[in-house]
Specification:
9-stranded antiparallel sheet, 209 residues, mainly beta, globular
């Protein structure tokens, strides 16, 4: 109502901006280097460009079945979008907080062959995930530039994947019974020039984790 907008549903999160690069395995046109976690169930409030978005928390953790991961806080996304005609810039941050919790004093990892491994040593371990990001679209006559950049810690533990949708190489890694943080920085840029009958475009992306 008034200057506030409410949204309850499932859609792409604010840190994802679509390009014309067919990078994802399902041809989602996300672009290599674009932050992506799929369509998220969420409750979002937007007031004068500022937004708060509470999303379904992700329970990804290496070496532990998802059933043993307790969500300590919803996946929360805050940010601000400024619009300038057809152009815009969007700045924000998103975070997720999980705890490994044993059920009935058991904690297991199910292997590919169906066998289980006792992982009780991981009980009460915590994984904090967060990411800061920027997305932008600049329209100047026939020229359109789309860009995305982000930096995060343990992005895979809150469901952010690579260009194939896999979260594995962005997760906190288990060494000596302790989780070690994994950092990721990535970005993508694309330029499209409209010549009337057709358009010319070029773009690229970078991911380091």
């Amino acid at each position: 109502a008034g200057f506030a907008k409410f949204m309850i549903g499932q859609k792409d999160p604010m840190y994802t901006i679509w390009t014309n690069q067919a990078a994802y395995a399902w041809n989602g046109l996300g672009g290599y280097g674009v932050a992506w976690s799929g369509r998220e169930k969420q409750v979002k409030v937007t007031i004068s460009g500022f937004y708060i978005d509470l999303m379904q928390a992700n329970v990804n953790a290496d070496d532990v079945d998802a059933a043993y991961v307790q969500t300590l806080f919803p996946k929360a996304n805050i940010g601000y979008t400024a619009n300038f005609g057809d152009s815009m810039i969007n700045l924000g941050a998103v975070g997720n907080y999980n705890k490994i919790q044993a059920k009935r004093n058991t904690l297991v990892k199910t292997q590919d062959d169906g066998t289980t491994t006792d992982m009780s040593a991981l009980k009460n371990k915590k994984i904090i995930s967060y990411m800061a990001y920027m997305t932008t679209k600049i329209v100047a006559g026939p020229l359109t530039i789309i860009g995305s950049a982000d930096y995060g810690v343990n992005e895979g533990n809150m469901g952010l994947g690579d260009y194939n949708g896999s979260t594995e190489f962005k997760k906190a890694l288990l060494f000596g019974g302790k989780y070690k943080n994994t950092t990721t920085y990535e970005g993508a840029i694309e330029a499209m020039y409209n010549l009337g009958a057709f358009s010319l475009g070029a773009g690229g992306g970078y991911v380091h984790s």
